[in-house]
Design a protein that fits this description.
The complex is a heterodimer. By secondary structure, chain A is mainly α. Chain A has 9 helices and no strands. Chain A starts with 14 loop residues before the first helix and ends with a helix. In chain B, 15% of the residues lie in helices and 31% in strands. Mean pLDDT of chain B is 79; it is low at 35-69. The chains are: A mainly alpha, B alpha+beta.
Chain lengths: 171, 358
């Protein structure tokens, strides 16, 4: 499991290296959140562009990775808040399109995709992005208790779904 | 074993956008922010289509980096909360299927003008939201200076449960307010019948917003036109919709780079006229006309612009450089075409076509 770097003991990040290391994870987390690889890639790209614009501050943060996931999630919210077609009509600078990543077609991924949007977001930030529960709470604008409850419920639902997939019947 | 452990595996070898592209976008954000700082308040001629994003705050980070607000969004009252509708799916429609969708057939269009090169890419993008678009009860806007107010009725709680909300008296009730990271004001309150309302104002102070809201009268779920304060216009009412899926027609001309040859055209069946987004995001918006109909013009700090208008139930968006006059000139040459128009033969869809950011 990845852990946020300790800013006091780490050399300052180089943007290019950090971008290449973090982008795939941010994109994957947002894909799980949205179910839309194109939107996920755009949100991730915009988040890293914002990071580059503020790199002197972002590189000194306790958790640049947590910050960029939160920024990408805000991009997703902003996109959907503006209504679906609106972002197509008014999209900002077009991103360089690259082939979307192939998502694993496994029982776990299929089961997670059936969770509620809030649960999926919590799962993506906690397990794909590897944020702490406190960071997930910050990113989602909910309390830490809500995150814990959401994840606990998601784990239960996931276990039921996986059991159903394995045995063909719910527990 | 935690069943989620499998999710932590990420394919680090999958292609990602080039770092040059990301850095160019970052520089555009910086330029836009500088332009924004230099703009005179009220003179909203500078569009900031890529700027205006606050930096989210995470505990332990630089305190100068501000929170981005916790407004979850707009969802019908039947949803669990405002964020319940902030999700969706999307993708590109296969070309063989274009003709099967009436909404695609209706909006297929090209720019047919001298000096506009052959179509470079053409595609139809579908988006499916968890919720249908929630129709506003009122959309008010002012063209000079550009400002707007949008009101929704019977919505879910738009706020997360960990927010710094401020109370504000409005329409005889206590609303909770917050400011969005791009300066918009959000108010939400319950009326005497327990129905939750939501208002979002752009380009005006909270005091003005409250004053306008206090003056409005609603009947049958929509604003009564005679109650709209002087100085504001009411956008055409938007018919409620139950559809969750929308499809947009996308064609591009010129080069992959955003040079003077590049032109993008996006069309779709209108779900909301451009006045709606102008009212919600007034920054950088300027009202104009295209062939006598209201159009909305936005530019960014690099001189690229976007022109939006609605005609015969079709929403058009043209993006190009060269200023408003050029965009209006191109708009006059947008023509409806068949989805199997020969000018589209052999034209790839945007999937897999490399674009260059700017």
């Amino acid at each position: 499991m990845r852990r946020p770097p300790d800013p006091g003991s780490q050399p300052l990040l180089v943007f290019e290296d950090w971008y290449r290391a973090e982008f795939p994870r941010v994109r994957q987390a947002m894909t799980l959140v949205t179910g839309d690889p194109g939107l996920a890639e755009e949100a991730a790209a915009e988040a890293f562009a914002v990071a580059f614009a503020h790199w002197s501050r972002v590189r000194r943060m306790a958790s640049p990775g947590g910050w960029v996931h939160t920024t990408a999630l805000n991009q997703v919210r902003r996109s959907w808040r503006r209504a679906v077609l609106e972002r197509r009509h008014r999209g900002s600078s077009p991103a360089e399109h690259v082939p979307p990543p192939e998502l694993p077609d496994t029982a776990v991924w299929r089961a997670v995709a059936t969770l509620s949007p809030r649960a999926r977001t919590a799962v993506a930030l906690r397990y794909v992005a590897d944020l702490t529960e406190a960071q997930v709470a910050d990113a989602m604008n909910v309390t830490r208790g809500t995150v814990a409850t959401t994840l606990s419920r998601a784990r239960r639902e996931l276990a039921d779904a996986l059991r159903t997939e394995t045995t063909g019947s719910p527990s | 074993m935690n069943p989620f452990d499998e999710l932590t595996h990420v394919d680090a070898t999958a292609p990602i956008p080039s770092v040059d592209t990301i850095q160019m976008r970052g520089r555009a954000i910086v330029r836009a922010r500088r332009a924004r700082r230099g703009a005179v308040v009220g003179a909203l001629a500078v569009a900031l289509t890529v700027g205006g994003l606050g930096l989210p705050h995470l505990a332990g980070n630089d305190p100068a980096v501000q929170a981005s607000g916790g407004f979850l969004g707009i969802a019908p009252a039947s949803a669990s909360d405002g964020g319940a509708c902030n999700m969706g799916h999307g993708g590109w429609v296969e070309r063989d299927d274009w003709g099967e969708h009436a909404d695609v057939v209706d909006v297929a269009s090209l720019v047919v003008a001298d000096g506009v090169g052959p179509v470079r890419t053409a595609g139809v993008h579908w988006d499916r939201g968890v919720c249908a678009v929630v129709t506003p009860a009122a959309v008010l806007y002012d063209t000079d200076p550009v400002r707007g107010l949008t009101v929704w009725r019977d919505v879910a709680n738009p706020y997360g449960d960990r927010l710094d909300l401020a109370p504000q008296q409005v329409r005889g009730r206590t609303a909770m307010t917050t400011d969005l990271d791009d300066g918009e004001h959000v108010l939400s309150w319950r009326d005497a019948d327990g129905i939750r309302w939501l208002a979002e104002a752009s380009g005006m102070s909270l005091a003005t917003t409250v004053s306008v809201l206090d003056d409005l009268t609603f009947a049958g779920g929509v604003v009564v036109p005679s109650s709209v304060p002087a100085g504001f216009s009411a956008a055409p009412a938007v018919a409620p919709t139950t559809t969750h899926t929308t499809r947009g027609w996308h064609v591009t001309y010129g080069s992959a780079a955003w040079d003077s040859r590049r032109i993008d055209l996006i069309t779709s069946r209108v779900t909301q006229p451009p006045e709606v987004y102008a009212a919600r995001d007034a920054q950088g918006v300027r009202f104009t006309t295209v062939d006598g109909v209201t159009a909305v013009w936005t530019t960014d700090a690099d001189g690229w612009g976007s022109l939006d208008w609605v005609r015969d139930g079709v929403r058009y968006t043209l993006k190009a450089s060269g200023g408003l006059d050029r965009l209006r000139g191109l708009a006059a040459h947008v023509e409806h075409v068949a989805v199997d128009d020969p000018r589209l033969d052999g034209v790839p869809d945007p999937r897999g076509v490399v674009e260059k950011g700017r």
